[in-house]
């Protein structure tokens, strides 16, 4: 995608805007105008406003002139939606999506994951894989991603460069793993872990000094893969720099047991991270399936966030995270594709599976069969709730709750234009292009259209994508 | 789709063919030629055969002349796969896909399903809905579908007409429900149920006398919706005509309880159908989630078949069917989309969800936590297994195991041509068209490509579809 020549102009967006105002409540702004300045900030929102009113009433207030403004109007049936936020994704594993057989976490790492990640020491291969991964996720409406890269600094830096040039907002983590990795793919020492991490931070500082689009993120792979020394020093670096942290927690029962065996002095898995200063309000914990109540309370107390990855958890037979329980503890929670534990590049698919997996928690024949039906029922996540997690929830998880995830004055324009297919027998489909599998017959209410989009939508419905006001993806047909 | 002018010619297919030979084993025929005669039958399969060898060696044996043969060659990276078989789908519910909220079976029926089905008494509406449903399912590679229509004869007959003209192999069932339905949508009496069923059978007999493409199927909605009189007489009709039967069983725990209350003299749900002569080797039972061991044994003993509908079962919080257990009892089992309990028109999606739901059965924290890990693990269905269920398994369920579901001499050419996307940075994507989300980097083995297709494939990968040799769907780009 070539940067638009218009990107330094003010922008006006007209039509229907849908966003989540709070967990479980989508709001629909019909016939609305959103004004985005040259820096990509939303500076005004005007209800019941068409182009004429925008030009006559709002432009003068903003000091804008008509010719300087790029206008994008949603067509009938289209709507603007906040960009999706992928709170947990391994870019180097992208080529392995769908390839996991019947493996579970620990054998999956050794069979599929470490060999692929190790091979990304090759910069040409990394270029090919990362370019494709970013292009795909952008095409699915992912405007922000919290990426794990590999242990290699050059290809990690390349991932940062590519996100910057392709315009995807990203957190880029060089993976720290100086323990238990295979011989061919492991940091030599805690010293090296820290040194290489620092190099990757310096690179990002050089290409995006204010971290406006790209931020480093400290990335101890997971407790079993890090020495006590490495974790201690990463904890210190976290405290000193204020950079965010991402890692895994309690994904798989064998992993949980491994942590128990390796850290007998810590009360539990969350306690390990807490001991080393890695459990703070800037920590993103992926999975969090098999947490004890004490662990969840500690996470809540520390203000750490959770990346829920239902596609991955079902694919690797990891378990069913109890999202409602975590939300009730007021833990911030977003969605992650977790490619390639997760099989899909799409956060819409993650949202869909989050709803379905929450239903599995509510099934009468499950572990929770003895609970009263009403309590089981409460586990279920609605369409509105999972779309909240995909946007506002994710924004909070990556520490950008005040900047992205919704349409509000003062926020940045990270958005997608969604178009659904209309069943019209009078139109030749070959003329109108491929709008995917969402079929709108015309009688559906808007909440029903959104439900249809959640359950059958794909990248064909994502017509345009913007990050900080810049058009970063557009479907040709 | 206009019928191809070539449909009455012999056909030669060249390239890679993949099909399931038995549960869990896909076979790959590279550089192979498949010869299909004018009637759509596979008359020869020749390994290591290109066009030249086909013309020189095989055509003479078959008495074919070159000019009379239409040749379709799979491109590099494409493959032929048997058409998918949807063993359980409600065509009139198609407009409701994705719309179910947090409902479960019994309230879902009243809130969403009965009103929609009732509205299809309108023939123009039925025409619009059914055309779209057939077009969509064909586009996803569904060559055979076991359809539930509505209680209305004219629109049921229209569904049969449309399947015939659009070329989809189909079982068409007018729904019998003379009990418990809402006032606005119910058969007046058992007499009427039988009379209208007969009318629909007569219509199909008139348009496709040998049931070569379209067959009637007796369709008591489910036990609670049918009077004893209706079920008794449908059982007799089944015995007299030999027509297949389709119905629902044990989808939801409240439904199971309802059946227990309504039929106190029957031992269990399966026993109800058995009592009325509706549990035979020509019966397709949808769902079968909460069966007792005795019930499953009775189903196995009677040779009845099961349509597993994982998308629906997760969406309506119905439960997790224990597929491995049913397969071990040697019950024939296929996949159903169960639109619109299921949210997707795609059997590939059903196969994907069948794999994921089987993983949920295997999760350590579930109901089955006390089982030994090895036994839980056995619940998991592999890529090869779910693709078997989508093709051969489905064929057996609809009673066409000797005709469709694989590539064998004597079978009919119900097939799809699958193409995956290739990651090639030297090619302008706008030139090569949209090949969907499956990204092949080139180093993947064929079983890995198939896994990628299962987990990220969609209708964009379905390039062409044939039923009985007739080209019934082709992607323009």
Keywords for this structure?
four-stranded antiparallel β-sheet; alpha/beta; 2 domains; 22% strand; TIM Barrel; 20 strands; 16 helices; Urease, subunit C, domain 1; homodimer; 477 residues
Please characterize this protein's 3D structure:
Two copies of one chain form a homodimer. By secondary structure, chain A is an alpha/beta fold. The first copy, chain A, folds into two domains: 6-82 and 406-474, Roll (Urease, subunit C, domain 1), CATH 2.30.40.10; 84-397, TIM Barrel, CATH 3.20.20. The first copy, chain A, is 38% helix and 22% strand. Chain A is built from 16 helices and 20 strands. Chain A has helices at 51-62, 105-119, 123-139, 153-166, 190-207, 228-241, 253-262, 269-275, 293-302, 310-315, 323-328, 347-362, 373-378, 383-397, 429-432, 446-456; strands at residues 10-22, 25-36, 42-46, 69-73, 78-82, 84-90, 142-148, 169-173, 175-176, 214-216, 219-220, 245-249, 283-287, 305-308, 333-335, 415-419, 421-422, 439-440, 462-467, 470-474. Chain A has a four-stranded mixed sheet. A four-stranded antiparallel sheet of chain A has the order 5-16-19-20, with helices on one face. In chain A, strands 6-7-8-10 form a four-stranded parallel sheet. In chain A, strand 13 (283-287), helix 9 and strand 14 (305-308) form a beta-alpha-beta unit. The radius of gyration of chain A is 22 Å and the shape is globular. The first copy, chain A, starts with 9 loop residues before the first strand and ends with a strand. Chains A and B meet through helix 3, helix 12 and helix 16 of A and helix 3, helix 12 and helix 16 of B.
């Amino acid at each position: 995608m070539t940067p638009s020549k218009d990107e330094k102009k003010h922008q006006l967006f007209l039509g229907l805007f849908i966003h989540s105002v709070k967990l479980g409540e989508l709001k629909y702004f019909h016939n609305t105008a959103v004004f985005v300045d040259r820096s990509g900030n939303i500076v005004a929102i005007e209800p019941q406003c068409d182009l004429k009113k925008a030009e006559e009433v709002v432009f003068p207030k903003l000091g804008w002139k008509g010719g300087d403004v790029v206008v994008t109007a949603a067509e009938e049936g289209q709507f603007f939606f906040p960009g999706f936020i992928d709170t947990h994704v391994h870019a180097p594993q992208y080529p392995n999506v769908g390839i996991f057989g019947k493996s579970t976490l620990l054998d999956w790492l050794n069979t599929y994951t470490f060999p692929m990640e190790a091979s990304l020491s090759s910069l040409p291969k990394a270029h090919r894989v990362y370019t494709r991964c970013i292009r795909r996720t952008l095409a699915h409406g992912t405007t922000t991603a919290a990426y794990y890269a590999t242990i290699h600094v050059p290809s990690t830096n390349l991932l940062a460069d590519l996100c910057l040039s392709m315009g995807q907002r990203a957190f880029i983590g060089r993976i720290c793993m100086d323990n238990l990795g295979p011989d061919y793919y492991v940091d030599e020492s805690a010293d090296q872990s820290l040194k290489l991490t620092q190099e990757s931070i310096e690179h990002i500082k050089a290409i995006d000094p204010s971290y406006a689009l790209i931020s480093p993120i400290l990335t101890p792979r997971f407790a079993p893969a890090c020495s006590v020394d490495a974790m201690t020093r990463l904890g210190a670096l976290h405290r000193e720099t204020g950079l965010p942290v991402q890692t895994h927690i309690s994904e798989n029962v064998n992993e949980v047991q491994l942590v128990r065996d390796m850290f007998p002095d810590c009360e539990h898995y969350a306690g390990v991270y807490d001991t080393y200063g890695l459990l703070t309000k800037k920590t993103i914990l992926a999975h969090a399936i098999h947490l004890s109540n004490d662990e969840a309370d500690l996470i809540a107390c520390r203000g750490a966030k959770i990346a829920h990855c239902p596609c991955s958890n079902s694919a690797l037979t990891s378990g069913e995270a109890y999202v409602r329980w975590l939300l009730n503890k007021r833990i911030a929670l977003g969605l992650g594709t977790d490619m390639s534990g997760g099989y899909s590049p799409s956060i819409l698919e993650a949202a869909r599976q989050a709803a379905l997996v929450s239903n599995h928690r509510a099934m009468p024949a499950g572990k929770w069969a003895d609970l009263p039906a009403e309590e089981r029922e409460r586990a279920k996540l609605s369409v509105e709730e999972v779309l909240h997690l995909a946007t506002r929830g994710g924004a909070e998880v990556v520490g950008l709750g005040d900047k992205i995830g919704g349409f509000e004055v003062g926020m940045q324009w990270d958005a997608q234009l969604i178009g659904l297919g209309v069943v019209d027998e009078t139109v030749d489909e070959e003329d109108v292009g491929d709008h995917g599998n969402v079929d709108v017959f015309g009688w559906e209410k808007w909440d029903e259209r959104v439900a249809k989009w959640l359950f059958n939508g794909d990248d064909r419905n994502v017509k345009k994508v913007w990050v900080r006001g810049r058009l970063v993806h557009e479907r040709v047909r």
